[in-house]
Amino acid sequence: MIRSIGLAVVLFALWLLLSGHFSPLLIGLGLGSSVLVVYITHRMNVIDHEGFPIHLGFAAPTYLLWLGWEIVKANVDVVRIILTPSLPISPTMFRVRASQKSELGHVVYANSITLTPGTVTVDIIDDELEVHALTSGAADELQGGQMDRMASHMEGNGENGAPEART
Amino acid sequence: MFIAAAAAILVTMVMAIIRATKGPTFYDRVVAVNMFGTKSLLLIAVLGFLIERPEFLDIALVYALINFVGVIAVMKFFRYSHLGTPHAGDDLGDL
Amino acid sequence: MAADIASWIFILAGSFLVVAGGIGILRLPDVYTRMHAAGVTDTLATFLLVVGMAFQAGFTLVTAKLLLIVVFTFFASPTASHALAQAALASGLKPRLAEDRRPKDGKSLDDGGAE
Questions:
Q1: Residue A131 lies in a domain
Q2: Distance, CA of C3 to CA of B4 (rounded, Å)
Q3: What's residue A135's pLDDT?
Q4: Cα-Cα-Cα-Cα dihedral of A145, A151, A154, A157, to 10°?
Q5: Pairs of residues, one from chain A and one from chain C, whose beta carbons lie less than 8 Å apart
Q6: SS3 category, A119
Q7: Short-list A152, A144, A163, CA closest to A99
Q8: Which residues 6+ apart lie within 8 Å of B82 measured at CB?
Q9: Helix axes C46-57, C2-27, angle to 10 degrees
Q10: Is a pLDDT exceeding 70 seen at residue B35?
Q11: C83: closest CA among B72, B68, A68?
Q12: A75: domain range?
């Protein structure tokens, strides 16, 4: 129920943002369509912990900030490689274990890997991700497992309210 | 300033077109076309600022959606050669 | 004035990254590596350009729409990249590798894999 209300609020805020008009007619139309969409998604049964993951709470923004910094560093690396005349690439394929418990956690981890330039998740086999990396350095860094721990930490934080110590 | 950004984006779009025509594989072309799509979305946004019509941003948003759905549809079609839902027994997942 | 300077810096950095990504897509040798170059233009370059434009727009609805574009790009770009990479690999297109750390025949990392 709290997820349905939250979804309606988000949708209505999106309507206000995109329209920018505040006449009663347009606000009424926005309210109507938000409620209609929530009703339809409720019938489709997709408002769950995956469709609207508010249980991640404050762990999500922290993770996003950390991920943003990782993306900046990876971008600098990739651009430097592209612009070096000798093109020092060493493409590597490898597997990493995704230690997250839920499918949502796996998706967050796999998408984080792909979003970081220099590494692309190619396949998911059970709880292992097959990754293509532009350089063996990027591969080493990912196999070091820091991103895996951060993603697990975010998931664990959201579900238990306490960070999990993983090694 | 926006002219510089628009020029950079246009140069990149030309590079993407070169890659899309050279290939050599089908997937190279899709990567290039996907890149061309995301760059045109940026170009639309920059043009909106350049000629001071911020309404262009709405078009850019819609273009982002269409580009994403288009690439996914093309990949799905070439991988499974149909756009319908997976048949029972096919190991296709939810893609 | 300060906003103008910040906006210049962000937009020039973004333009540079966009062109670098374009050079990458021409220079790199195969599909999988080209995907990384496309990733550069999709993530940081888009973000820098949009932030530069947001400095010009000030605190208005336009900025909110720009942020929506960034959020959407950050969700859609990895999904499209993954779909592409997976389809390319499934079609039997072999990546050109300098090093292959996948476990040879075993299905899992547990039986003597890369860890």
A1: yes
A2: 18
A3: 85
A4: -60
A5: 136
A6: strand
A7: A152
A8: none
A9: 160
A10: yes
A11: B72
A12: 56-160
Q: Which of residues 20-39 of B touch C (CB under 8 A)?
A: 25, 27-28, 30-32, 34-35, 38-39
- Tokens 């002219």 locate to B3
Is the pLDDT reported for residue A131 higher than 60? yes
Give the span between the Cα atoms of C114 and C111, in whole angstroms.
9
Q: Is residue C40 a contact partner of residue B37, using CB atoms and an 8 Å limit?
A: no
pLDDT at C104: 64
Torsional class of B10: left (φ above 0), alpha (ψ -120 to 50), beta (otherwise) = alpha
Q: How many structural domains compose chain A?
A: 2
| pLDDT tops 70 at residue B91 | no
| Average pLDDT rounded to a whole number, residues A15-44 | 88
Same domain for A35 and A60, yes or no, is: no
Residue-range domain boundaries for chain C: 2-90
Alpha helices in A20-162 (DSSP H): 24-44, 59-83, 103-115, 136-143, 146-160
Note whether C34 contacts B: Cβ–Cβ < 8 A.
Answer: yes
Contact C53 B45 (CB under 8 A): yes
- Give the C-alpha separation, C96 to C101, whole Å: 13
